[in-house]
Write a sequence for this structure.
């Protein structure tokens, strides 16, 4: 008969359940305000419960056993605070405010990981690993289900690469990398029953199929290196390597077949073709899962003698060397990927292409931005604006596809140093956990440690920091490692500290909520303008402006309302306010110049449009015969100005 857990254990169970639901929420709705608010509330509630003696609290930051856990959280908070401080000099202050909020939410995930480790006690790493596996695993199941049933993946006809529910194929591949290693831990665990081990093996098989269907080269490389790191950190390497092969080989076979099916991998495939190929994919996938279950069961029963084990080990080592040499040879034959100007396609043939698309140019742009202001940067979250002065084409890019360079360009040497502090504290916490823990808990820690390691590797070629769906669970995993096996602080009630935490959490919620509410008001402005209700549009614009006075979009919408109301002075002043708010943003100058152009003030329009051109000379806005050319012609006409 099922019974409630003991009363003392219920807060710990509640924390585990809340953490699991939060992880599911961030994976399926990562950019949602409600997920961000939930992260702050759950982490804050856990810390308050610890300060009131309801939950175990990790050792204090001054203790020898607790300093790395708190250093990890503190470095994330410091990075967030520095992002917020950059509002003072940022070329896009509203974006820097968003980065402050993002950083505080991420620090909440890290704190939650530390609290989970303390709450879980001797099972802290296993608890965190299970929760991360659950969240990422659910995302992979949904993603693959969208291939079987295209109605679950409606945008798959436009672009076939696997990406739902996270929305970005490379981020989904990173989640699959984490699931692969965590499922290998489950599949080879000696403490789990056989059905659970087989379930882990099948989940790992699904992870490999998902990585391949994302057609993510960085994801595939991170998966290979992640498995290698896991084997290096683990015991019983030979047996685990054989289990890995039993999982990976059928997955490669299924993905290889899928690559030949139009409805699974070709952009723009007809819906009927996607439905037909999806059904076949479901059947083939299930056959592959059955093969994995049989193969892993056979490996579990196999007991080779010492001589055979030695031969198998040498064979696997030889295969590894051959694969590494082949990969190195392919890269050498392809030449320097940074110098390749060829665009890489979106079909499965991209897996054999070492080109970096336009990443090399983005990295050079980030370096130029850093050199322009090396100490404090252009402001957190402003790469998209700052790069426009340096870009050589009209392609848009929100980030440089390299997280360290992203911090270097946006927040300067100070922000980059804080990012390195985050990495160092996480690494020290993981190494300490692997040294302290033993047996089943160490096995879980070894798998969990690969999650932030794979994230860091992947972040060298992508902008993973912008995706809470992968960054939140990764930071929770790193926090759990930093706090694992360190015991807990003496249970002392600290009501004043708890009250301070409540106040801080409410302040963070307010900081997160106001830009979100302002964005909702901006969307309402657009709806009211479409309906022609100018009074309601003006009211919504004023509300957006008061909620987020740093928002460029709110000012532009307010000016657009005045323009529709034919109040020339108010409209002109509104667009001028946008320029004063963000004088280094070409958008602000462009809309002011466009307004002057539309009302016939071409001489004034030229001044503003030319400033926008100076800040963004390669924009598609500057087409022959466009507003800038017409304004320039007027200025060049003698006596016209």
């Amino acid at each position: 008969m099922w019974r409630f857990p003991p009363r003392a254990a219920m807060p710990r169970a509640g924390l585990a359940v809340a953490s699991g639901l939060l992880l599911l929420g961030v994976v399926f709705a990562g950019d949602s305000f409600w997920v961000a608010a939930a992260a702050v509330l759950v982490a804050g509630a856990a810390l308050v419960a610890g300060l009131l003696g309801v939950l175990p609290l990790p050792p204090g930051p001054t203790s020898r056993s607790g300093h790395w856990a708190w250093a990890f959280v503190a470095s994330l908070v410091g990075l967030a605070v520095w992002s917020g401080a950059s509002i003072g000099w940022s070329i896009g202050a509203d974006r820097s405010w968003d980065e402050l909020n993002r950083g505080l939410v991420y620090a909440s995930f890290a704190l939650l990981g530390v609290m989970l480790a303390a709450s879980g006690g001797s099972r802290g790493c296993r608890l965190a690993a299970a929760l991360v596996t659950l969240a990422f695993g659910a995302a992979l199941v949904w993603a693959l289900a969208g291939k079987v049933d295209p109605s679950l993946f409606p945008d798959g006809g436009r672009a076939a690469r696997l990406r739902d529910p996270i929305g970005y194929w490379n981020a989904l591949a990173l989640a699959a990398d984490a699931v692969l290693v965590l499922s290998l831990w489950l599949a080879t665990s000696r403490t789990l029953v056989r059905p659970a081990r087989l379930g882990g093996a099948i989940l790992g098989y699904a992870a490999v199929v998902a990585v391949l269907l994302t057609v993510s080269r960085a994801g595939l490389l991170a998966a290979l290196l992640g498995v290698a790191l896991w084997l290096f950190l683990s015991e019983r390497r030979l047996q685990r390597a054989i289990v890995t092969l039993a999982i990976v080989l059928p997955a490669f076979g299924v993905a290889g077949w899928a690559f030949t099916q139009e409805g699974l991998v070709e952009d723009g495939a007809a819906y009927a073709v996607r439905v037909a190929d999806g059904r076949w994919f479901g059947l083939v996938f299930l056959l592959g899962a059955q093969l994995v279950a049989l193969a892993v069961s056979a490996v579990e029963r196999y007991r080779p003698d010492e001589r055979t084990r030695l031969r198998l080990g040498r064979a696997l080592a030889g295969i590894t060397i051959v694969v590494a040499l082949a990969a190195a040879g392919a890269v050498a034959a392809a030449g320097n990927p940074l110098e390749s100007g060829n665009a890489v396609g979106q079909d499965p043939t991209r897996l054999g292409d070492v080109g970096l698309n336009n990443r090399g140019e983005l990295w050079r742009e980030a370096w130029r931005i850093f050199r322009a202001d090396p100490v404090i940067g252009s402001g957190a979250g402003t790469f998209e604006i700052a790069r426009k002065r340096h870009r050589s084409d009209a392609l848009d890019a929100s980030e440089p596809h390299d997280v360290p360079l992203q911090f270097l360009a946006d927040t300067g040497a100070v922000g980059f140093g804080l990012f390195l502090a985050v990495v160092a504290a996480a690494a020290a916490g993981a190494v300490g956990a692997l040294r302290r823990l033993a047996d089943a808990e160490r096995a879980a820690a070894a798998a969990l440690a690969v999650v932030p390691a794979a994230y860091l590797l992947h972040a060298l070629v992508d902008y993973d920091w912008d995706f809470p769906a992968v960054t939140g669970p990764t930071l929770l995993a790193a926090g759990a490692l930093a706090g694992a096996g360190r015991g807990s602080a003496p249970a002392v009630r600290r009501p004043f500290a708890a009250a301070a935490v409540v106040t801080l959490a409410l302040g963070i919620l307010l900081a997160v909520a106001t830009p979100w509410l302002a964005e909702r008001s901006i969307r309402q402005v657009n709806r009211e303008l479409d309906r022609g209700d100018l009074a309601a549009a003006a009211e919504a614009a004023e509300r957006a402006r008061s909620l987020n006075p740093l928002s460029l979009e709110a000012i532009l919408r307010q000016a657009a309302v005045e323009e529709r109301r034919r109040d020339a002075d108010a409209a002109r002043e509104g667009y001028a306010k946008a320029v004063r708010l963000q004088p280094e943003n070409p958008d602000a100058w462009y809309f002011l110049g466009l307004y002057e152009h539309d009302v016939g003030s071409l001489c004034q329009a030229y001044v503003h449009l030319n400033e926008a051109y100076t800040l963004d000379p390669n924009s598609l806005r500057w087409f022959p015969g466009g507003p800038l050319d017409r304004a320039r012609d007027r200025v060049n006409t003698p006596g016209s100005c």
Q: What stands out?
A: The two ends are 90 Å apart (CA to CA).
